[in-house]
């Protein structure tokens, strides 16, 4: 059930690992898109704007939790590459204890503070109650989200990118059914969409847990290995917390931008929401390539095969560049039709605004490809703290656009906020990667001596 990424041609390995990941991400975004589509079609544009207005703060919190889980999986990948099974199991056990702690703290804080945050973000009065109903339930479901992401991260660190996809497919189907039942038949409004998401996450997490117990002999943790160990916990936090902060710092810029867009009115919030939902769906290949490079980098560093890092990076960048061109072409010709997934054909202004945003983003997708590929590679190599600074650059770029340019140029400026963030992050990440490789070469050379 495991896969060693330290042997074989990098391009072939990356493709075989990334394709199942891509399907998993597509399933994940598919039920997110269905959520939005059902909300927009059944509940109207105000409900769509309410859900969309929570997107940045949702990303800030959920992104932190997901980043922590992905960071916890990096030492597991490194130990798997080094063939140290006892150490691997100790990292898994301590990651489990830490996830319980983080889930309790994050759930308590976010459910208490979500209403004040929405008010600070100047969420329009006509949608703030619906926005609160939606995001409160999502935050209450943080433990379910962390359960799935932690277990899926561990499974991927062992080279198995297929298993989590199967459970995501199952949860996607359940989510869609619950969306229709809770929103259309039980008239639960946006809260129904939130409940459907949380319940589906619980199911996928539980499925991962029982599958791991049955299928992975390498994860049969003994009573002694289950003991909490501060040494392992500190290493895990050193990987996980910076990775989580990277997501949150990036999201702070998104919160600033969302606040600026909120001030423009509900029409522009709906426009940005529709464009963002489509963009997230089309960006799944970049996320898949990034997650692949985290595992690829972790295993090869653990095995001491530094020469394979550059080969894998080049192969992955080639794939990212090819897809960037395809995505832009699709946006140019089909963006208005795609927007009809969430909007009624009569909402001409919102559809036109969504197309503008999509094309502005699509022109810079190669920069986004580099952000994901290089940043996740750096994290997989064990330099999570350094990768945080890429998030800082993204936050600064989005913050400048939100504070300075949106008040002057309006919605058009908001459309170029993410491209500006990606370019700024790349300016930092490319030299950072070179530094990390050189440092690892020196470390391995010293160990050999």
Total domain modules = 1
Spatial gap, N to C terminus: 36 Å
SS content category:
mainly alpha
Strand content: under 5%
Q: Main beta sheet: strand number and arrangement?
A: none
Number of discrete helical segments:
17
Helix content: over 70%
Shape: globular
Poorly predicted residue ranges: none
Provide mean pLDDT, rounded.
88
Total beta strand runs: 0
Oligomer: single chain
From the alpha-carbon coordinates, what is the Rg to the nearest angstrom?
A: 21 Å
SSE sequence, one letter per element: HHHHHHHHHHHHHHHHH
Which features would summarize this protein structure in a list?
449 residues; mainly alpha; 17 helices; globular
Can you describe what's shown?
The protein has 449 residues and is mainly α. It has one domain. 85% of the residues lie in helices and 0% in strands. The chain is built from 17 helices and no strands. It has helices at residues 10-43, 45-53, 55-81, 85-120, 128-140, 142-157, 163-185, 190-215, 230-262, 266-282, 284-302, 307-339, 348-362, 365-380, 384-409, 411-415, 417-448. It starts with 9 loop residues before the first helix and ends with a helix. The model has no long low-confidence stretch (mean pLDDT 88).
């Amino acid at each position: 059930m495991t896969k060693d990424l330290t042997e074989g041609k990098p391009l072939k390995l990356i493709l075989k690992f990334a394709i199942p990941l891509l399907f998993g991400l597509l399933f994940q975004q598919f039920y997110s898109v269905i959520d939005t589509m059902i909300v927009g079609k059944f509940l109207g544009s105000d409900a769509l704007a309410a859900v969309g207005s929570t997107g940045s703060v949702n990303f800030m919190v959920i992104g932190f939790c997901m980043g922590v889980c992905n960071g916890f999986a990096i030492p597991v990948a490194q130990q798997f590459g080094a063939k140290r099974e006892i150490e691997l199991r100790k990292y898994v056990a301590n990651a489990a204890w830490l996830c319980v702690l983080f889930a309790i703290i994050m759930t308590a804080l976010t459910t208490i503070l979500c209403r004040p945050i929405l008010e600070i973000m100047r969420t329009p009065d006509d949608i703030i109650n619906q926005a609160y109903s939606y995001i409160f339930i999502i935050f209450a479901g943080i433990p379910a989200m962390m359960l799935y992401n932690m277990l899926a991260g561990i499974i991927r660190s062992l080279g198995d990118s297929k298993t989590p996809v199967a459970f995501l497919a199952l949860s996607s189907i359940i989510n869609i059914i619950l969306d229709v039942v809770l929103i259309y038949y039980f008239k639960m409004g946006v809260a129904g969409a939130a409940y459907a998401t949380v319940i589906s996450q619980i199911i996928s997490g539980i499925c991962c847990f029982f599958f791991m117990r049955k299928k992975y002999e390498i994860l049969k943790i003994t009573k002694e290995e289950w003991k909490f160990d501060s040494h392992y916990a500190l290493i895990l936090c050193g990987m996980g917390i910076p990775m989580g902060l990277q997501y949150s710092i990036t999201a702070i810029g998104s919160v600033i931008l969302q606040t600026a867009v909120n001030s423009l009115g509900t029409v522009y919030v709906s426009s940005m929401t529709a464009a963002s939902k489509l963009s997230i769906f089309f960006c799944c290949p970049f996320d898949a390539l990034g997650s692949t490079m985290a595992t690829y980098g972790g295993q090869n560093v653990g095995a001491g095969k530094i020469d394979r890092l550059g080969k894998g990076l080049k192969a992955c960048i080639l794939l990212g560049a090819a897809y960037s061109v395809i995505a832009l072409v699709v946006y140019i010709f089909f963006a208005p039709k795609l927007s009809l997934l969430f909007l009624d054909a009569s909402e001409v202004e919102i559809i036109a605004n969504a197309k503008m945003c999509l094309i502005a983003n699509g022109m810079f997708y190669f920069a986004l490809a580099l952000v994901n590929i290089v940043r996740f590679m750096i994290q997989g190599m064990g330099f999570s703290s350094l990768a945080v600074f890429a998030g800082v650059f993204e936050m600064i770029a989005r913050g400048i656009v939100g504070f300075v340019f949106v008040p002057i140029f309006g919605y058009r400026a908001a459309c170029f906020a993410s491209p500006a963030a990606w370019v700024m992050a790349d300016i930092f990440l490319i030299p950072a990667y070179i530094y990390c490789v050189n440092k690892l070469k020196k470390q391995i050379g010293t160990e050999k001596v």
